[in-house]
Each structure stands twice: as C-alpha cells, then as structure tokens.
Amino acid sequence: MTAVSDRFSAPPGTVSSPAQLPAWQTGYARRLVLVDLVGVVLAVGLAQWLRFGSLPGTGQAYRYSNYLVVSLVIVAGWMFALSINHARSTRVVGSGAEEYRRVWIATVAVFGAVAIVSMLFKLEIARGYLMIALPAGVLLLGLLRWTARRLVVRARRRHGRFVTRVLVVGSAPAVRDLTQSFARGQWSEYQVVGACIPGPVTRTELHVPGVGAIPTYGNESHVVGAVTATNSHAVAVTATERLDGRGFRDLSWELEKLDVDLLVAPGVVDVAGPRLQMRPVAGLPLIHVEKPQYHGAKQFQKRLFDTLFASAVLLFGLPFLVTIAVAVKVTSKGPVFYRQERIGLDGNPFQMIKFRTMIDGADKMRAELVERNESDGGVLFKIRDDPRVTPIGRVLRKYSLDELPQFINVLKRDMSVVGPRPPLASEVKTYDDYAKRRLLVRPGITGLWQVSGRSDLSWEDSVRLDLFYVENWSMVADLLIAVKTLRAVVSHSGAY
Questions:
Q1: pLDDT at position 103
Q2: What domains does the chain contain, in order, with CATH numbers?
Q3: Residue 307, phi then psi, degrees to nearest 5
C-alpha cells in the first residue's frame, strides 16, 4: 500500500502539472471568431446585394454607400453579441444544441436592437434588407458551425486529436457506466484514460465492456498523482461514498493549482440539461430534476408542429407519392399500402400505414425465417437480406420512402412526426416497467432511434434512446431530429 501511495500521490509542498493542457479548446474557439466573421459578412453582404442589386459606381451608388455603413455597424454588433452571449465558450462549442441556441439568441438580440434603434431615430432601414440578412445569417452561422464540428469529429476518429483526457473517480460500476456513456457519443470530446476507485488498492485495471481495459491508479487519495501519470485534462467524479464534502473541496483546490477541470457526474441517467436546475441551499449546490411535461403549452406546440409538417409533406409531395404507388402496384402483386397493427399512446392499438415493400402474404412466412433474425435481444425482427422484400421495396426501404404514408397517421393523431419507434403488440408484451414509459407519448415517424443507426441498433440501445426522448422532449429537440433525419435517410445507414 505504501508503494502505491508513494507512486501516485503528490509530494508534500509541491504542485505537479500535466504535460499538456487541452489547448485545442481555446484554439478552436479562436478559429470560430474567423468562422463567425465569414458567416456574418456573407449574410449582410448578400442582403445588401440582393436588396439593392447594384455596386458602387452605378445609379444607386449613394444609397449603396449609406447601407455599406449600416452593414459594417451590423457586422460589428453581431460579432459583439456573439461574444457577450458566450457563443464561443469552450464549455459549449463542439457538441450539443447549446452552442446553436446561443448563436440564435445573439442574432435575435442584434436584429431586435436594430429594429428598435431604427424606430426611435426614424432611420427607415429597408425591411427587405433585414428580412434577408436575418435568415441568411442564421443559416450560414449554423452551417459553418456544423462544418467546424464535422472537421473536429473527423480528426478525433482518424488521428485521435481534439480530445479531452479524463480521469474518473468513483466506484467500479459507476466508472464503467460513465466510460460507456462517453464512448457511445460519437461527438464526445472526453476520453477516459484512467480511474481511481475508492477502497483497498487491489487491481491495476478495470475492464469496461465495449471499451476495453481502463488502468486504475489507486483510490481517491491518489487523484493528484494519477492526473500527472495520465496527463489528464479533467477529473470526473461519479458515484462514490468515500469522497465527502470536504474531500470535494480539497480536491477542487488541488486541481485548481494544476489548471485541471473538475467534472461532477451526479449519477442522474438520461436526463437532459433543461430538466436540471441548480439550486444553492445553505452553501450546498442541489440539483433539482424537473418532472417531464407532456401537457399544456408543450402538447399544443407539438400537435401544431405535427399538423403543419404532415400537411406540407402530403400536399407538396403528392405527385411523388402517386409515382411510388404506381411503381409498387405494377412491379408486384398485392395492395399498394401495407397496414399493420402497432401500439401507440397509452398502449392503444392503431393501424400504421406504409407502402408495401414485401411480397403479398409476407407475414405468414415469418415463422420460417425466425432463425435468421439478426436483432440483438430477440425482441425485434430484422433480417439484412430479407427474401420477402421486393426489388422496388429495397429501394424504398433504403431511403425510408416506404414510411411516407405514415404522415396520414400523424394527421389522424395516431402518430407524431418525432417520437419513439412504434412497437408491435408482441413487443409490448415483453416490456418491463422501464420500457413501458415509451408509451407515454405518441410514436414517431422518426426519432433518436432513426438518426442513431435504425436497424443497426441493439434492443437495449433502442429502448434507451426512446426513453431519453420521452423524458426530455422539447420543440428544439424535435427540430434537430427532423434535420438529422434527412442526413440519415441520404446516408441510408442501418436501413434494411
């Protein structure tokens, strides 16, 4: 025990330091200044060019020059608003929706200020100019931020760059759970490089399923030395009984000297940020977990979104839907549509409508193919090369076109545009109390399961994603999932 303690504890009176801090975060944030400037200048320049349609030296040169000054003021104000809203903070850039939310808030603040100043001083700034600059700016800033994220993720996957090395402190099960959570997120910047497990030092590594062996560096008293040994940039403390309030405080002071971040994982699983509220009480930071809300204004917002979105798809996509229906009818015998009983809100059954992609009577052949089921967990029934699928059906499934008639189910209030995967009655019979919470909201045409792998997901991952959606629904999340669905459909990953 003494040898281990000497190896991983910092000597008295000295301050160790990691070999290198995560400089990529500050460097990335600085580059975003240039990225934002390009997006803002392009948006304002495009608005000025489209609104006035001429350059200096033509008949509108004087007015164009006046608006050039206005454009420069808006660019400066826009960049300032992004800064004071911390849209480039290292705490939010690179992952999650918070970065985009701050960009949106900064943009709305700028144009709101322009509108107020224009009204007060009667500047009469052209409304067409502002109506072009605002959406163009939001679109360009979002697209450029997304592109920057993709470059970072690609560098992580191919070269192992742009990662934050994390030392985890906690019990063995808690370390495993946190490590697996980090490994699951394709956008996650955190890489677990070691662990300190409270209690007697009896092991040198901890095996994490799906990840591998994580080296251990003693117990909670060896954290400072372990940070140096692993060159960690952050320490994540998860469920542990051995580290009390004073221990947390002392640890935070030691890590502050090393310029190492301290992360606290409270063990609250699959609860998103909007439901977590920090409430300091008597000097203690308490985390208040709000109850998930499915009624009132949120329910109205979701229903309005479903109705407008489904109506638009069916109306503008009618010629395309007719073309698909004709193709299905002339290429194989049987009806155009396939109806199947699924379980919806509160366990109520409904008839889900899809374009038929299999030969007529395919359901009767399922018993013959049960041994070829490739779904992990055995609850779902999926075969990558299903012999029952027709040639046109393979094309429809590849791009999820067979699901377009489900927008009729949305208008009938059987389904939602975004929600959990609609289950079969046979699947619901196997649900435990944990999985039954999927039935608290209407099933969706798309959802987290659709944008995270579709048929490639295991049963456990499918349930976990559906429950995360149920527990943390928001209108912004629905919009993001709808956008990501387009990418998933084009890539046709996990579609069979």
A1: 93
A2: 2-15+163-267 (3.40.50), 23-159 (no CATH), 297-491 (no CATH)
A3: -65, -45
